[in-house]
Amino acid sequence: MQTLEHTRDNPPASAPVDVVEHWRRFAPDLGGTPLLWSDTVPGGGHWSAILPRGSRLRLVALDPHVNASLVCYHARLLSERYCLPDTLKAQHTAHLTRGHVLMSDMGRSLASIVADSVGWHDPLGGLLNAKRMSDKYGERRYQSHRNAMFRSGEDGLLIELGKYGLAKRDLVAPVNFFSKVSVDTEGRFQFDDTPLAAGASVELRFDLDTLVAWSTAPHPLDPRPDYAPGKLGLVAWRDAPAAADDYCARFRPENARALHNSAQFYL
Question: What angle do CA 234, 238, 241 make, to 5 degrees?
Fold first, then answer.
């Protein structure tokens, strides 16, 4: 894990290791930006980071089919975490896109979606667990397949949360970025498996110091018969907290209150 002070793409001058500038392949427009780090996550992988208030994270789909299951926790108060019911009911929505905020269970905004080329991200489909994965795809264990093993989204996130002293009881429902799930007239979930456009991306601004964990395992409703999750590109940089005329604050009055509550934490 990187600390808030040390960065991957802009390390201290005395850093003894070479740094791969992953961002140049999928976010070249960020040249000259004060980057914190960039990375790529293979399909079926997982990772986590602590991002400070005001920083931004861009997620970029590097394959036509990508699912990024993301969970958030207040890094200074880990008992506070992303709350799916409050996020959806306060914003009168069943999907997430630009303008929406990820609300905590204490009425604060953990993160705001400030840019989105996709337009629809699934907050309802949940996580692929080990049983469902095994029933659908079979088993590939590390002992026999090494990095070609199959890992579920649930297991990947639990590994990441364990690094911070969190456990299964702390695992919340994720936002499945890059996955679109709608509901038909009979109330059944429908997964849209239309390939993503090249370079599809979504961008988050963090409104609290936030622990973020993500998995790139398949969405549990993905109809494709093979375990073939796509790669994800990530780049984070320093920016500023929401301004008075912020798009997300103006999107709904509930969002403005959530952002105000986040700012109040730092007074």
Answer: 115
Length reported for the chain: 267
Contacts of 29 (CB under 8 A, 6+ apart): none
Name the token pair of 9. 């793409």
Q: What is the pLDDT along the chain (267 residues), one digit of tens a residue?
A: 344 444 455 554 444 456 789 999 999 999 989 999 999 999 999 999 999 999 999 999 999 999 999 999 999 999 999 999 999 999 999 999 999 999 999 999 999 999 999 999 999 999 999 999 999 998 877 666 667 679 999 999 999 999 999 999 999 999 999 999 998 888 899 999 999 999 999 999 999 999 999 999 999 999 999 999 999 999 999 999 999 999 999 999 999 999 999 999 999
| Phi, psi dihedrals of residue 230, rounded to the nearest 5° | -90, 165
Could you tell me the pTM of the whole model?
0.91
Q: Is the dihedral of CA 141, 142, 143, 147 positive or negative?
A: positive
